[in-house]
Design a protein that fits this description.
Blueprint lengths: L3 E6 L3 H11 L11 E2 L7 H10 L4 E4 L19 H4 L4 E6 L15 E4 L3 H6 L1 H7 L3 E5 L2 H7 L6 E5 L9 H5 L2 E5 L1 H4 L6 E6 L18 E7 L5 E7 L9 H18 L8 H11 L6 H25 L1
Helix pairs in contact: 1-2, 1-11, 10-11
Length: about 300
C-alpha cells in the first residue's frame, strides 16, 4: 500500500478549482487523496469531483462540522449517483457525537476522522466494529498510542498553517516550517499517509475583507523532504486601495525568490501560471491566486512522494 497525501479541503470554489487544475497534468495526481468537507451547496462540487474520480480516489465528508451544507435538508446540487457509486469515491465521517446510527456509512469505501480524543477513548469498541478502511487521527502521541494496537490503516494529520492577521509578522519571519509528516509520518505503525488542511488552515469563515497589505504563501520542499512556507508581503500604503499594485508587488518578490531558489522541481505548472500574471501586469483575483497556490502545493507534494516511491 502506497504512502499518500490526504489534504482536507473545505470545499470552497478555489479548493475545487485547484483540484481541477492539477487534473490537467494527470501524472501529478499520483499519491494525492483529497478529502472534501463541503461547506456550500454549489454545482461545481459534482463537476470537479467527477473529474478527479476519473484519475484518483477522493473522500467526501458526510457529516461536515463547518459551513451550512450539513444544515440543508434539501440540497439543490446533491452528489450524483454516478459519483456515489464510483469505485474511487470514498465516504468519510467524523467519529464524534454527531455520528448516529442513521448516519453510519454504507459505502464499501469509507473512512473515519477521529479528532475528539475523549470520544475516541470511550468508543474504541465501536471503532473496531466499524473497521474503517482509512482512519485519520491528529499527529499526537496519545492518539497513536490509542489506535496503534488496532492495526487499522492510519493517516496522521495536523494543522500547521499559522495564519497571522497582522501581516507584519511575516516580514519578521518570512519563512516558517510547515510539515515533516511526508517523511516522519512514514515511520508510524500502520501508516498509509499523512494529511493537513493545506495552506488554507482549518479555520473557516464565509466572510473576508480587503487588507492594507497582500501576502502570498508559497510552499517549498527542502532537501530534507520537509515542507516550509515562504511568505511574500506587499507594500503598505496605509489604505485598502491599490489591490492590483499590492498583488503585483508581492508577486514580484515571489518571482525574484523563485529565480534564485536552487530546487528546479519547485517550479510546478501551477506556479508557472501564477508567474505569468506578473508578465501581463494583471491581478487575476483572490480566488484564482488561491487556486494556483493550492495547486502548486499539491503538485509539489505529489512529485516528492513519487521520488520516494521510486527509491
Amino acid at each position: 500500500m502506497s504512502y499518500d497525501y490526504y489534504p482536507i479541503l473545505r470545499g470552497r470554489q478555489y479548493d475545487l478549482l485547484a483540484l481541477q487544475t492539477v487534473t490537467q497534468v494527470p501524472a501529478l495526481t499520483e499519491h494525492l487523496f483529497p478529502i472534501i468537507e463541503p461547506v456550500k451547496d454549489i454545482s461545481s462540487l459534482n463537476k470537479n469531483i467527477s473529474l478527479w474520480l476519473n484519475l484518483r480516489p477522493l473522500g467526501f465528508i458526510t457529516n461536515p462540522v463547518v459551513g451550512d451544507y450539513a444544515l440543508l435538508t434539501v440540497k439543490a446540487h446533491p452528489l450524483k449517483p454516478s459519483i456515489l457509486n464510483h469505485p474511487n469515491f470514498w465516504q468519510f465521517q467524523y467519529f464524534d457525537p454527531t455520528l448516529t446510527p442513521k448516519s453510519l456509512i454504507q459505502s464499501p469505501n469509507y473512512g473515519l476522522i477521529c479528532a475528539n480524543y475523549h470520544y475516541l477513548a470511550s468508543h474504541l469498541a465501536q471503532l473496531v466494529q466499524l473497521a474503517p478502511k482509512r482512519l485519520l487521527i491528529p499527529d499526537e502521541a496519545r492518539f497513536r498510542a490509542l489506535v496503534g494496537p488496532l492495526g487499522l490503516p492510519t493517516v496522521t494529520y495536523n494543522d500547521p498553517f499559522d495564519y497571522q492577521a497582522d501581516f507584519d509578522v511575516y516580514l519578521v519571519e518570512p519563512e516558517t516550517s510547515f510539515s515533516t509528516l511526508l517523511t516522519v509520518g512514514q515511520l508510524y505503525p500502520q501508516a498509509v499517509g499523512c494529511g493537513d488542511f493545506s495552506i488554507m488552515g482549518s479555520y473557516y469563515s464565509e466572510y473576508g475583507a480587503p487588507q492594507r497589505r497582500q501576502v502570498l504563501h508559497l510552499m517549498l520542499l527542502t532537501d530534507m523532504g520537509t515542507l516550509n512556507l515562504r511568505h511574500f508581503v506587499s507594500f503598505d500604503d496605509g489604505g485598502m486601495g491599490h489591490q492590483k499594485e499590492k498583488f503585483l508587488d508581492a508577486l514580484a518578490k515571489l518571482r525574484g525568490f523563485v529565480a534564485h531558489y536552487p530546487r528546479a522541481n519547485s517550479l510546478t505548472p501551477a506556479l508557472k501560471t501564477l508567474l505569468t500574471h506578473f508578465e501581463v501586469d494583471k491581478n487575476p483575483g483572490f480566488g484564482t491566486v488561491k487556486k494556483l497556490l493550492l495547486a502548486h502545493h499539491f503538485e509539489l507534494v505529489s512529485r516528492f512522494l513519487q521520488t520516494q516511491t521510486a527509491q
